[in-house]
Each structure stands twice: as structure tokens, then as C-alpha cells.
Specification:
By secondary structure, this protein is mostly beta strands. It has a single domain, classed as Jelly Rolls, CATH 2.60.120.380. The protein is built from no helices and 6 strands. It has a 3-stranded antiparallel sheet, with no helix packed on it. Strands 3-2-4 form a 3-stranded antiparallel sheet, with no helix packed on it.
């Protein structure tokens, strides 16, 4: 998942303005958060916590189980409009196969 963020303040300790988080849940209920475990290897680690830093988040499952997975993009912190084409306070996000908006 990638989201376009409004320009931040370069003097700030956190460069992003808004925070969207990627969460996948396996058919058996195992939760994978975006970027969790990817600093240690090529595959995502289960559990963990929401990534509150990056505007690009990935989940890579080495041996995904069969069944229906839940893919969620959570608008954890939308403080500035990132999708000015609408009147709502929202953010554009894009994933591998879609394009839509996430609202607070």
C-alpha cells in the first residue's frame, strides 16, 4: 500500500502528516501489519504493531494459507486532507490491484 501525503515540515521529527496502516488477517486469524519483520528478512512476521512512520507498507507471506484473507487500510491519523478532490477529510491510497480513498 502506498499513500500520497501532504508535504510535511522538514524540521519535524516525523516527516509524515497523515498515517494509514495496512493490516492483513489470515483465514485462521493471524494478523500481519505492514512492514512488520521486513528489516530482518524478506518475509513479514505475524503479529507486531501498526507502522506509524512509513507512507509505503508491504506484507509478504512466504507460505500463505488457503481461504479468505481480510485486507484493511486503517486511517489511524488523518489530520490534513490528502485527497482535495472531495469535501471530506480523507487520503488517497493505492495497493497492488486497486485505487480508492480512506476516510477518518
Amino acid at each position: 500500500m502506498v499513500f500520497k501525503d501532504p508535504r510535511g515540515n522538514p524540521a519535524s521529527s516525523i516527516a509524515r502528516i497523515n498515517d494509514l496502516s495496512l493490516r492483513l488477517t489470515s483465514p485462521s486469524g493471524t494478523v500481519y501489519w505492514g512492514n512488520n519483520g521486513l528489516r530482518q528478512g524478506n518475509w513479514s512476521s505475524p503479529n507486531g504493531v501498526s507502522n506509524t512512520i512509513d507512507t509505503v507498507e508491504n506484507v509478504f507471506i512466504q507460505n500463505p494459507e488457503g481461504g479468505v484473507w481480510s485486507v484493511e487500510v486503517l486511517g489511524d491519523d488523518i489530520v490534513q486532507d490528502g485527497h482535495t478532490q472531495t469535501s471530506a477529510l480523507d487520503a488517497d491510497r493505492h495497493s497492488a490491484n486497486d485505487s480508492c480513498s480512506t476516510r477518518r
